[in-house]
Amino acid sequence: MTEDKAKVNEQHEQETLENGAQEEPSTTKKDSKKDKIHKKSKVEEQLEKTENEILELKDKHIRLQAEFDNYRKRTIKERMELLKTASESVLVNILPVIDDFDRALQTLESVQEENHVREGVNLIYNKFQEFLKQNGVKEIEARGKDFDTDLHEAITKIPAPSEDLKGKIVDVIQKGYYLNDKVIRFSKVVIGE
């Protein structure tokens, strides 16, 4: 029996060795499958990381383009505003000359006879008014209108000559002017109360 036991032990050892030899290739196959899976997961991680980086760069690029477009629009708008109001100081300094022309015309209207001076002054005045219109200057209509603090400056109040002129502008002391819809001089007015 001891011989039988020894034979069985020997067979068992041999089978274990054979099974071990067989298991080694299967474990190497399992290991290689694990390695392949591990490698795939690494590649997938890198791919995902790269895709995220690309998305991030696209987002940065789009934001930069939008920012530049906003900057471009803002500078164009500022340039247009500057061009519209660049001549403002010159035109504001010309306004007293317009006032003098108005006074001269009022004085010349009182003269009854036909006068070449009046015609000459009218001609110059009309050309001057046309020049101002071309440069975007226009008069603020005030007489008979409601008082508006955004356009008018009240000098004084007087009793209204009629009920419909209460709270309205009765007289204009000095004309006001717009430059491209911006008030460059307020109308100085008298209000009826």
Helix proportion range = 55-70%
Extract low-pLDDT stretches: 20-25
User: Over the alpha carbons, how many angstroms does the gyration radius reach?
Assistant: 48 Å
Task: Could you tell me the CATH topology label of the largest domain.
Answer: Nucleotide Exchange Factor Grpe, Chain A, domain 2
Based on DSSP secondary structure assignment, what is the total number of beta strands?
A: 6
- According to CATH, the homologous superfamily of the largest domain is Head domain of nucleotide exchange factor GrpE
* SS-derived structural category: alpha+beta
Major pleated sheet: 3 strands, antiparallel
CATH class of the largest domain, named Mainly Beta
- Order of strands, main sheet, comes to 1-4-5
The span between the termini is: 140 Å
Tell me the strand percentage band: 15-25%
CATH architecture of the largest domain: Roll
